[in-house]
Amino acid sequence: CFVYLPSYNRYKINSNNSTYDQVKKIIKELDIYFIDVHKEIFELEPNPFKLFPFESSKHYNIKGYKKISTLIEKIIANN
């Protein structure tokens, strides 16, 4: 299982995320289960910066970690 955890800069600078696409492709080719936190949580957030402390470039805040851990727990329980 591979868990993709997006960084603050992914949303701040709106990069083209070619590394994300490359990693996703490799993980798929290796037939490893891919948990895409970007797609499952951050894309669905009206303001993804709310998942970072003080909306700045640090680790996730309590809300962010809670959403991520809940997602991982749900996926593991269903597989």
Concise summary:
With 79 residues, the protein is mostly helical. It is built from 4 helices and 2 strands, in the order βααβαα.
SSE layout:
Layout: E1 2-4, H1 8-12, H2 18-29, E2 34-36, H3 37-40, H4 62-77
Parallel strand pairs: 1-2
Write structural notes for this entry:
A two-stranded parallel ribbon has the order 1-2. The chain is mostly helical and 79 residues long. It has helices spanning 8-12, 18-29, 37-40, 62-77, and strands spanning 2-4, 34-36. Helix content is 47%, strand content 8%. The longest helix is centred in the C-terminal third of the chain and has 16 residues, at 62-77.
Helix coverage percent of residues? 40-55%
Number of strands: 2
Overall structural class, as computed from helix and strand content, comes to mainly alpha
Number of helices: 4
**Cα separation of the termini:** 11 Å
The sequence of SSEs as H and E is EHHEHH
Unreliable runs: none
**What characterizes the major β-sheet?**
2 strands, parallel
Backbone shape = flat
**Spatial strand sequence of the major β-sheet:** 1-2
Q: How would you state the average pLDDT, rounded?
A: 91
The amount of beta strand, in percent, is 5-15%
Could you tell me the radius of gyration in angstroms? 13 Å
